[in-house]
Amino acid sequence: MSLKTKVGIIGGGPSGLMLSQLLDLRGIDNIVLEKHSREYVLGRIRAGVLEHGFAELMREAQCGERMDAEGEIHEGFYIADNGKMQRVDLAGHTGGNSVVVYGQTELTRDLYDAREKMGGNVIHNVEDVKLNDLKSDAPYITYRDGDEIIRIDCDYVIGADGFHGVSRKSIPADVLQEYEKVYPFGWLGVLSRTKPVSPELVYAKNDRGFALCSMRSQVLSRYYIQVPLTDTVEDWSDDAFWDELKARLPQDVADALETGPSIEKSIAPLRSFVAEPMRYGNLFLAGDAAHIVPPTGARGLNSAASDIYYLYHAMVDHYENSDDTGLENYSEKALARIWKAQRFSWWMTSLLHTFPESISYDSKLQKTDMEYLFSSEAALTSLAENYVGLPF
Ligand code: RFL
Ligand code: PHB
Questions:
Q1: What does the pLDDT average to over 169-186?
Q2: Closest ligand to 196 CA?
């Protein structure tokens, strides 16, 4: 069988779905290919914090209704340093900006619902996706559906298939430059049907290791603790998790913590990664397919949003105005913002985690970094403007 479309999108995560929805609203025909089922994609518990620009894009995609009704606006968060809690006033340091706490699961559900409503073509459970003739004017994608090989001819291919996807790997090794930093720890995350311990997020630095108190709603909490890479989920009973979390939080926060059975528990390794360039012929990479950050700065999904924003406008300029400047500049423009998110995520990670190999000099610098942060309006402003998101 053979299909034809303008834009072939690999990956039905937030990046792929968002671009598909935005293009469809402008009458630009596209097909999304997703390796897994919808239920599987919605079962992954990931991001929780959306910057203003992302929320705006959801609204532009006509998917912002539930986010605006159920998401929480947060104008600040706390940093605890071995027991001492200090607030970062995001709104106060950014002229009134804030972030929206709304889970990636819910946002992805909204995007799937919107695609369904518009009759969008999202094909699940595709196997053996291959990208072909990317350097030509007639690229095509093939995939397997059972015994049948399906071919999709398109003008452009979007690689939005995450870090482990096939798109980035379709770029020849001598063209692609990869920059990577792997951290010697991971985050163990627990979701529980309990009231969040604090109305705003708490990022806790502690000699035992980092901890984060986050949430999905007023009845659903998300907590994380830093763990060695050798740990597995089976090593951590719920009781052991709650005990360790409490040990890393300031006493009054630990005393107020409501515990309960975990409804999801997983470990994510921490990694920084960037692939350059983000364009190869008529293939454009977007989101986690091209770059990964450690979750400490809540930048991952938000970095995907700026890629999608640039690509969406570039595609519209191409199809509506025959102007290819946006497509030509895409990689350079996207990477400029990506590297700033990389810097911020690395800095937040360095500030807040306990590094197993650190020498006494490193520990002194980390302590000084924290003292400087809360003694300087300029440093707090820099943190706040990065956390709410730099302009697209
Ligand atoms: P995704 O979500 O990985 O989606 C890619 C999709 O592509 C599919 N796929 C394929 N499809 C077809 N053919 C193939 N060969 C394919 N290979 C893969 C996959 O099944 C999948 O459905 O990438 P996308 O869309 O770029 O979205 C990126 C975000 O998911 C990611 O950046 C964030 O979750 C990162 N992140 C956070 N970001 C934030 O902005 N704020 C946060 O608070 C935040 N917290 C987090 C996070 C990520 C975490 N983990 C688990 C890595 C917290 C955690 C714990
Ligand atoms: C989350 O709620 O999952 C979350 C929030 C903030 C982060 C990372 C993850 O920095």
A1: 97
A2: 2
**Tokens 């097909």 found at:** 31
Of 108, 105, 385, give the one whose Cα is nearest residue 222.
Answer: 105
| Ligand 1, atom 30, residue with closest C-alpha | 301
pLDDT tens by residue, 49-76: 999 999 999 999 999 999 999 999 999 9
Averaged confidence pLDDT in the chain: 97
- Give the neighbor-by-neighbor strand order of the sheet with 140-145: 2-4, 148-153, 140-145, 127-132
DSSP string, 221-278: EEEEEEE-TT--GGG--HHHHHHHHHHHS-HHHHHH-----EEEEEEEEEEEEEEE-S
The residue nearest atom 10 of ligand 2, judged by CA position, is: 298
Q: Quick check: do 2-74+98-180+271-352 and 183-270+354-388 share a fold?
A: no
Is the whole-model pTM more than 0.85?
yes
Q: Are 9 and 165 in contact (CB under 8 A)?
A: no
Going by alpha carbons, the residue nearest to atom 29 of ligand 1 is: 301
CA of 99 to the centre of ligand 1 (A): 19
Q: Does domain 183-270+354-388 have CATH number 3.30.9.10?
A: yes
Cβ 100 vs Cβ 71: under 8 Å: yes
Ligand 2 atom with minimal separation from the 203 CA: 10
Question: What is the CATH number assigned to the segment(s) 2-74+98-180+271-352?
Answer: 3.50.50.60
